[in-house]
Design goal:
CATH architecture: 2-Layer Sandwich
Strand content: 25-35%
CATH topology: S16 Ribosomal Protein, Chain: A
Helix content: 25-40%
Largest sheet: 5 strands, mixed
Radius of gyration: 16 Å
Number of strands: 5
Distance between the termini: 40 Å
Shape: globular
Oligomer: single chain
Number of helices: 3
Order of helices and strands: EEEEHEHH
CATH superfamily: Ribosomal protein S16
Structural class: alpha+beta
Strand order of the largest sheet: 4-3-2-1-5
Number of domains: 1
CATH class: Alpha Beta
């Protein structure tokens, strides 16, 4: 399955990211099928450049976005939809929260 994900580039303590498309099981620092854009969270506001037509093409052909990438796309108006939750709550934590409530 194809996945649109972030891969980190840049120097130590100066993160910048690329949006790439690759197989979900493949290493994100390995070879990508295509680079779809860049994201720099260090600037204020963050620099966000993407190839919107290519992203729409890959999503139409069945590519899945990671939760973080999806939220960035929704925030910047690349795709329409609601943001997804990024955190997963374990069973033990759910039980503990249920007992408190």
């Amino acid at each position: 399955m194809l996945s649109i994900r972030l891969t980190r580039i840049g120097k130590k303590k100066q993160p910048e990211y690329r949006f790439i498309i690759c197989e979900k099981s493949r290493d994100p620092w390995g070879k990508a099928l295509e680079i779809l854009g860049h994201y720099n969270p260090r600037t204020n506001p963050g620099t966000f450049t993407v190839k919107k037509d290519r992203i729409e093409h890959w999503i139409a052909n069945g590519a899945q976005c990671t939760d973080t990438v999806w939220n960035l796309f929704v925030e910047h108006g690349v795709v329409k939809g609601e943001k997804r939750k990024n955190t997963k709550i374990s069973k033990k934590r759910k039980e503990k929260l249920a007992k408190k409530a």
